[in-house]
Design goal:
This protein is of the alpha/beta class and about 300 residues long. It has 14 helices and seven strands. The N terminus is likely disordered.
Length: about 300
């Protein structure tokens, strides 16, 4: 017969994530996550406002970007904000570029002839050396921590590490080394690296369903695709990725010739996420908002050495 302490341990081990977070086992958990913090002042301002208004539950910072120090200061002075690192290996904008945090001579395979990251995932995947990928990712993490950031999770700009299973394995390794969860979207992993999914699931918390708007809604109805995702949401861990910024001169200059994920797009995301109609949609569908910090505390309890 099992002892009471052993019975308690077995019960704890058989709980799913929702139960470990204090919800019913069939709860619909949702992280509303803002990408690209640090990209610009207009991005930082919109994200900070969205945090303050309860429109997002999480965000992640691009360390190589020029406006990184501003959002790093916010993260340091607001330690309860759920902020991770948006590990960056590509630079897609036409006239606004960024490159490695590591000394350029140490990561030549990550740079184009101008010394910037490649603009596309395909070009990055064709050129990047795994050892240099790890060196650069580690440098970005260390720089963020040097600025006083205590990341709640790691994710990746433009999904670039998905282009090569070796790159994604590096990201997972760094997550375990630094004791923070890594975005592991079940749907994408099934498509990109099905042979690793079972092993990844053993050691990581998977996001069961990930949603990100990839094209502007028909007739400009910005709520509709988000409504469809929320109303059809299944129990488990879900994440919506949004891109927030104010549609101003700075954003339009940074995002010139980018209708997708451009200045107006990001203003629309901001307006919707901070709106009463979005809050009603979540409430009406009994969605439980959660953070990566909560998941981190499940994966890496504070009392563990």
């Amino acid at each position: 017969m099992l002892s009471l302490s052993t019975q308690g341990l077995v019960a704890q081990q058989t709980q799913n994530l929702a139960e470990k977070l204090g919800y019913d086992k069939d709860a619909k958990l949702l992280i509303i996550h803002a990408d690209d913090l640090g990209l610009s002042h207009g991005t930082n301002s919109a994200v900070i406002s969205a945090f303050n208004k309860g429109g997002i539950t999480s965000g992640s910072i691009m360390v190589p970007c020029p406006w990184f120090p501003e959002i790093a200061s916010f993260a340091k002075t607001n330690p309860k904000a759920d902020i991770g690192i948006h590990l960056t290996l590509t630079s897609e904008w036409e006239n606004y570029k960024f490159g490695p945090v590591t000394s350029a001579d140490l990561v030549p395979s990550l740079q184009n002839k101008q010394g910037y990251f490649y603009p596309t995932v395909e070009a990055f995947g064709a050129k990047a050396n795994p050892a240099e990928v790890e060196k650069e990712l580690r440098a970005q993490i260390e720089r963020a921590m040097a600025f006083g950031i205590h990341p709640t999770h790691f994710d990746n700009h433009m999904g670039s590490v998905m282009v090569n299973p070796a790159f994604y394995q590096i990201l997972l390794k760094l997550g375990h080394e630094y004791r923070v969860p890594v975005l592991a979207p079940k749907d994408m992993l099934l498509a990109a690296a099905p042979q690793f999914l079972e092993q990844i699931a053993k050691d990581n918390v998977l996001v069961d369903h990930l949603f990100m708007l990839n094209q502007a809604p028909v007739a400009g109805n910005w709520l509709q695709p988000y409504r469809e995702f929320v109303e059809n949401m299944q129990p488990g861990l879900n994440q919506i990725i949004v891109h927030l910024a104010y549609d101003n001169d700075e954003s339009r200059a940074v995002m010139i010739h980018h209708d997708d994920f451009g200045a107006q797009w990001r203003q629309n995301d901001y307006d919707l996420m901070t709106s009463d109609k979005m809050k009603r949609l979540l409430s009406d569908n009994n969605i439980k908002l959660v953070t990566w910090r909560q998941i981190k505390n499940v994966m890496y309890p504070a009392n563990e050495q």
